[in-house]
Fold Dihydrofolate reductase family protein.
Amino acid sequence: MTGRIVIDLFSTLDGVAQAPGGPEEDTSGGFRFGGWQAPLGDEMTGRQIMAGMESLDALLLGRRTYDIFAAYWPHHTDGPEGGIGRLFDAVPKYVASRGTPQLDWRGSSLLGPDLEAELDALRERHVEVHVIGSIDFARTLLDRQLFDELVLWVYPIVLGEGKKVFPDGAVPARLRLVAASAPSPVGVVQLRYAPDGAPTTGDLT
């Protein structure tokens, strides 16, 4: 059975996915709202996030997100975050980078330059490879439809700036809705999409 590439992104209503986790996560472009996700957390969303990781057996990350994860998760394998910390620490980590980064977190390796071939190899090797955050890299996968599922957690907030999941100039594409959750107590909705080819047009009259 061929494995899957799953992209997990936290998004605002206006499509911003930049720096949900903290003020210093990604300040590029003068982004002022790092950590916007934190005030909108609730138990239901937390359970959904954890449930979505049950089949994860590898991580695929962009360089910036890898550095953030490597600095944090190996040191948070106990306490409330211990389960996800132990999971991330234990599974293989694959890093997409044009440079030659130092990958000290155990189980980490650099992808080769042929992205499509590398993803095919990961599908043969793993059940479910998750791309978490890594918005710049995720947009490459979305533009080239090199993914099997996009999981969006959409939060009831509008920022008006920041890196968007689908920015102006994104490659036109159609997505098929696989599932949608009921809203959480604070209004977060989980939407799951599969790639569905190129968009078509028509006439409503």
Notes: The beta strands are 4-12, 58-62, 93-96, 108-110, 128-132, 149-155, 175-180, 189-195. The first helix runs from residue 43 to 52. The domain at 4-21+33-177 is CATH 3.40.430.10 (Dihydrofolate Reductase, subunit A). The two ends are 45 Å apart (CA to CA).
